[in-house]
Amino acid sequence: MGLLRVLLALAVVAAHAGPAFGASWLQLTGGPCAVQCFYVISGFYMALILNEKYVGEGAYGRFMKARVLRLVPMFAVVLVATIGIGLVLFAATGKAIDPLARWQEHGAAMPWGSVLCLWLTNLGLLGQDAVTFFAVDPQSHGVFFTPDFHRETLPAWQFLWVPQAWSISLELMFYALAPLVVRRTPWLLLAGILASLALRVFVLRTYGVANDPWTYRFFPHELALFLAGSLAWHVHRALRSRGLLRAWACRLATALLLLLVLAFPLLPAWLQGAPYGVPRLAAITAVLLPFAFEATKSHRLDRALGELSYPVYLVHYLLVFVVGALALPWLTETRGIVVLVLSLLLAALLWRFVGQPFETRRQLRPGGAA
Q1: What is the DSSP letter of 212?
Q2: How many angstroms from the chain centroid is the CA of residue 92?
Q3: Number of other residues whose CB lies within 10 A of the CB of residue 353
Q4: CA distance readout (Å), 39 to 92, 147, 166, 265, 272
Q5: Beta-carbon contacts of residue 204 (< 8 Å; ≥ 6 apart)
């Protein structure tokens, strides 16, 4: 499923930088749908490794340590690079990338408690999703809760140096919860999915907050997608044990899933839809995932491609910031393709020199290969 993951990461890149060559069909699934499909895939993999790899005494600690080593080093490098490049660019040209501009304009006047919370959130990962529920008053510079940051002049997320990392915060919350739930019976997972969906519908209809971040970044609502992926692993195990994962069916399901992502903008509107913020493609992904995993699990090239998805997701916003700050006409016009190509290149370097060494070290430890 590596190619699938890279395509979803590139859909996020297109959502923030614009599609390559301005071609609307190259926006693929769009950002929100891509991220939510990632949640389904993450739920599948966490159920897989927690049921087949991290078992026995001390498994929870080993699992959490492995997840942190998987996510944090590359995030830390991108965070430092974003701050450093932002400061160097400003010193050399006088042009500030977006988060630096926000801190320069409002940081000194903000209450120390707000500054501390925002910087702690920037330096870590947990809580970046919560920042999307707040905004900064341009006059008083105080931080306040908002049910819809899109309506605010100065959303608090604009003070984040790696703003897309809010989804990693949700991933970490699921990782903390996963060992307690993904080993349970499929019926319990199904109950969790229904409870999460019911909560989503209740909150959106009762309180009239049928908008991002409630439809996209609120963990109790997104939990259904993670659990759907975990349930898909249980389906995979049941089908495999019965010899029902036929090679032709697995290849067909994989091709169909890739086609749906590649041709998403061309699909009928009802198939592109997301009732109550749940993309229909995410549900289809959960259904096809057991077959797609079986078809690709032994492909080394596909696995190598998959390793690029996380670093692509991490580095692309830095490039968006730099292109926006430079504001060169030719660069602005070609932003989509420039950010896409450079994201892939920098992602390969980030994986080679940061991610892969940590991954190798992690897998050398007992129980670490997953």
Answers
A1: T
A2: 33
A3: 11
A4: 40, 23, 13, 21, 18
A5: 210, 214, 215, 276, 277
Residue reference for tokens 């007992």: 366
Alpha carbon distance 226, 233 (integer Å) = 11
Q: Which residues pair with 143 in a beta bridge?
A: 136
Domain edges within the chain: 2-96+164-364
340 within 8 A of 12, measured Cβ to Cβ? no
* Own/partner pairs, 58-66, CB within 8 angstroms, 24+ separation: 58/367, 59/179, 59/367, 60/179, 62/365, 62/367, 62/368, 63/175, 63/178, 63/179, 64/175, 64/176, 66/362, 66/368, 66/370
Q: To 5 degrees, how large is the angle CA 69–CA 173–CA 179?
A: 80
Taken in order 147, 282, 166, 222, the sign of the CA dihedral is positive
Count H helices, E strands: the chain? Answer: 17, 2
- Contacts of residue 189, defined as CB under 8 A and 6 or more positions apart, other chains included, come to 181, 182, 227, 230, 231, 234
Q: How many residues does the chain have?
A: 370
- Judge whether residue 341 has pLDDT over 90: yes
**Residue-level pLDDT at 95:** 96
Give the pair of three-digit tokens for residue 241. Answer: 């044990």
Give the lowest-confidence range in 8-12, 29-33, 57-61, 297-301: 57-61
